[in-house]
Amino acid sequence: MIDVRHVVIAVLTALALGGCLKDSSTTTLKLDGSGTFTQTSTIEMEKAKAYIAQLKAQARGLGLPPEDTSANPFAAVDATQREAALKLHKGIRVVRADRREDAKKKTRTYELQVAFDSLQQMYAAGVVEDVSVKLERVPEGKAWEGKAWKLTVRHVFDGNDREPLVGKSAENLRKMRAAMLERYKRLWGSLEITSTLQLPTKILATNGQPRRTAEGGHIVTWRIGFTDLADASRLIQHVTFADAEGLKLKPFVLSANDIANAIEEAELAAQEAKKKKKAVPPK
Asked: What is the pLDDT of residue 205?
């Protein structure tokens, strides 16, 4: 039986994307397994404030405690906080992390660029939040020549790693989430999350939109819209790509809980380091 209260919290968490209306990220993977991740997140400030008021009213109506609502819709994409925490992870280098305001458009935009030594280190550091990730070898098959790799990223907005429900349970959950999302359509109906992955080898299969660049690069893009949040199957992104000589990858599995714990530990460590630095008297 589906817990209505849990569904409500799940949907509210899904909407608590830092008050983010547009989020675009690009991950570029090199043959040696290293690469870069670039993210741009834009918030419409007036809508974010209205969202917080609506979220608190919704929580009060459900009898939820204050901690079940977000007092800061911007915390999830705060460039300064993320930069301090990411610097504590091995194999991660923050290239750029900044914020800019547009008074005319009433928007706030966060930008983050990170260099990583391996995909596993990037995901383990929480560079991409609220996901579970699996990179696995695909044995030689009839569909393509040679061996291949498959990367699967599942967005987990309800804070846990349960596999998506199937059958009647899945349909009931979808309807309940859709009904909840309808209440926030006016504020977040144009929400769009775009994820792009550039690979050093040929794309063999994907549920995204693959394309080739003029320079011969292999790129795949996924888009999640507001209504997709109600359908768990729309939140799973996968791509299978060819193995190649010199391609240095290692299989790994990371749960959303693993990533969330790593983020929290790094943020707490960064906060503690900041406190210690302030406590040291100037010479």
From this structure: 93
